[in-house]
Amino acid sequence: MEVIDYRLMINQSSVIRKMYKNALDRAEQIGYENVFDYSLGNPSVPVPEEFNNEIIRLLTSEDSKHIHEYSPNAGIVEVREAIAKSLNSRFGIDYKSEHIFMTAGATSAIAHSLRCVTKQDDEVIVFAPFFPEYTPYVKLAGCKLKVVEPDIKTFQINFEKLEQLLTPEVTAIIVNSPNNPTGIAYSEETIIKLAKLLENKQKEFNHDIFIISDEPYREISFDNIKIPYIAKYYKNTLTCYSFSKSLSIPGERIGYIAINPECKDADIMVSMCVQISRGLGQNAPASIIQRAIVPILDKTAQLSVYENNMNILYDELIKLGFKCVKPNGTFYLFPQSLEDDANIFCQKATKYDLFLVPGDSFGCCGHFRIAYCVQTEKVKRSIFKFREFVQNEYCNLLNKEQSLILR
Amino acid sequence: MEVIDYRLMINQSSVIRKMYKNALDRAEQIGYENVFDYSLGNPSVPVPEEFNNEIIRLLTSEDSKHIHEYSPNAGIVEVREAIAKSLNSRFGIDYKSEHIFMTAGATSAIAHSLRCVTKQDDEVIVFAPFFPEYTPYVKLAGCKLKVVEPDIKTFQINFEKLEQLLTPEVTAIIVNSPNNPTGIAYSEETIIKLAKLLENKQKEFNHDIFIISDEPYREISFDNIKIPYIAKYYKNTLTCYSFSKSLSIPGERIGYIAINPECKDADIMVSMCVQISRGLGQNAPASIIQRAIVPILDKTAQLSVYENNMNILYDELIKLGFKCVKPNGTFYLFPQSLEDDANIFCQKATKYDLFLVPGDSFGCCGHFRIAYCVQTEKVKRSIFKFREFVQNEYCNLLNKEQSLILR
Fold first, then answer.
1. What residues are paired with B126 via a beta bridge?
2. pLDDT digits over B93-139, tens only?
3. pLDDT for the residue numbered B101
4. CATH classification of the domain holding A331
5. A299 vs A310: CA distance, rounded Å
6. Predicted pLDDT at A396
7. B198 and B266 share one domain
8. For testing the chain A interface, which of B283, B293, B374 should be mutated: the one with the most A CBs within 10 Å?
9. Residue after which a domain boundary falls, among A270, A296, A322
10. Number of domains in chain A
């Protein structure tokens, strides 16, 4: 196993955070309202008021000692039951409370899942472009990360490349659909093909291969499409969920792992997570937050704002000559940059107060991410900045029609 | 490094939890009010109302999006500043916000601290009797646990035994004062002697030795004694704190690590904790809980109840012929059992609806723990049960005077 030196890690800070800091620095000069900060994936719509109301009800109507007491390590049973019931009614699975393990958001869910299904030095596959934190998550779980190159025309799975990397050392695959940073959800066809491939490889290698399905954006879908629920297609699936994005409560650190009841060791996985928690130092998420999500398990924040923002930006970028696969959900766009080096492209954009994140750290060069979880009014104003940016820096790339728009 | 098998760990469930389950099973037969459940360390007094009021104020008066947004990974800066200020005024240290790392309780604080100051296969010393969870904490951090035998007459440090175990492989020592399960706080004399020994050994070994000071019971002290603040006596101290016991909010998972400003690498320790968090899957405790403790940093729940309970039980046990070192704090008593095997002793006690925990799992046989964080009314009623228990099971041990009490 590789020796971890946390000291060395300190200076490898995230490009996203750096760009966010640049935006904040600029805001000090011209005011945050004039900075088009598309760097961070921080929800921009408020939590449904039922959440706040439920906390207030718990604090004012219930026994205070009971409300704040220790949660069982796997989570409060009634909360786990309610989540199982909600998932069953929506996705037609047969979860019981014993299959639900409460976590402090998706980060904690992935940390537990990785340790559940891998052992030291196993290999874990991810698909580029991918959330950059997967790299330390996998490494610090003692495993090796293998990255499947993207199919940049569709951002569906590049199966040719996947098969090359799918060796017997692989015991887990992290899937993230809808995806950060592309906004693309895997089609049912893609998922069926993936499930079939993994089933064949399990037989060939004579060991299990688990999907760790990271689904914080599951509820943010566009054009009324139904995001396929991956556990429905592949038995060995651990679904990692976070309420951060769907309910706009990222600071409250609440999520869960749902173990497919037909998964290998499904009956002991949650007990294993409890053991893993002793090492990770997690004793369940905050009790009051667990209780407060129960009344709104089937609700979301006003997520339609994100689709609206996406459409405004997407239409404009296409008009300006950008190539971009249209998202099915999330609050991200991942267009190709107008020059090969997306870092230079994003650096130039800051001159127009546009703060974008180059795709390199997502494992996909030549692209950039727009996190459009900002006010729609601001998205509209940013359009003029994008026009100015392209006209000034890349006018040679514009065709006649595009030049007309910009005039 | 030892290979961890979480499957094997599942059945090694805690004796405390088992005894608690026995108490609950019995409660189904005779009602919980008739069960003298001294098994769990679950606070029995309510949180100060300012805590609940502050949450309600945040939810009703502040911007909802802001209140629930991501916390920085090390914690909300204003919260860390307030904690530093509170500690400085109470203990005369010079913490800055940069020395405070917010955690989901003491468990998370210890998990981060161990990884900060040790590397794989290092040895970590604990003093018996000790909180049984230290064993998995240390093991799952990749280190080896070494247990210093107790001085059962005082439960201060047994320095002779400590020196035998203090070899160059040791890089961290977990100290827990006031102690679970004995209730004993280390005297200033003990701490000065420990600090001196460690300073000498650091020079001798030419490497740092860190104290991880686990202090969840710091605020629960008896007889108005001042519990010495360990970081004040030894530079390389990481203080791990939890608000679970002092504020009676164990379910809300809130605590911190305070890095002594004079500790080795004090300026980068919190940044290292942030890196460690990426592996542990912790992204700071719940934002609203962080904010809600600020107004009550210098307050506590009504902790005097515990001292009252202790005095009632201690006086009675002494009268009945038990040997017990009188606690300086916490809500635990740790008397010697009336027969060599404390497991048999505690098993017999259940016949009288007394649920006690044998000391074996704390690394100290022949003793038992009473967690008297229960209602005083119940403590008083339990006295009759203790009398009956001793009279029926151990009457041969009673002297004339004691027999008279029991008549």
1. B147, B174
2. 999 999 999 999 999 999 999 999 999 999 999 999 999 999 999 99
3. 98
4. 3.90.1150.10
5. 22
6. 84
7. yes
8. B283
9. A296
10. 2
Same domain, A53 and A180: yes
Q: Please report, as a single letter, which amino acid is at residue B284.
A: A
Nearest-Cα distance to chain B for A59, in Å, is: 6
- To the nearest whole Å, the CA of B396 is away from the closest chain A CA by 41
Residue B66: pLDDT over 60: yes
Which CATH number is A115's domain given?
3.40.640.10
CB within 8 Å: B46 and A64: yes
Same domain, yes or no: B71 and B183: yes
Query: Which one of B3, B136, B254 has the shortest CB-CB distance to A279?
Result: B136
- Residue B1 forms part of a structural domain: no
CA–CA separation, A396 vs B195, rounded Å?
Answer: 71
Is pLDDT at B28 greater than 70 in this prediction? yes
Contact assessment for residue B101 and residue B72, using Cβ atoms and an 8 Å cutoff: no
Instruction: State whether residue B31 sits within 8 Å of chain A by CB.
Output: no
pLDDT digits (tens, 9 = 90+) for B132-183: 999 999 999 999 999 999 999 999 999 999 999 999 999 999 999 999 999 9
Q: Which residues contact A263 (CB under 8 A, 6 or more apart)?
A: A210, A235, A236, A237, A238, A269
Instruction: Please tell me whether residues B248 and B374 are part of one structural domain.
Output: no
pLDDT in tens, B241-279: 999 999 999 999 999 999 999 999 999 999 999 999 999
Which residue type, as a one-letter code, is found at position B376? T
C-alpha–C-alpha distance, residues A328 and A105, integer Å: 23
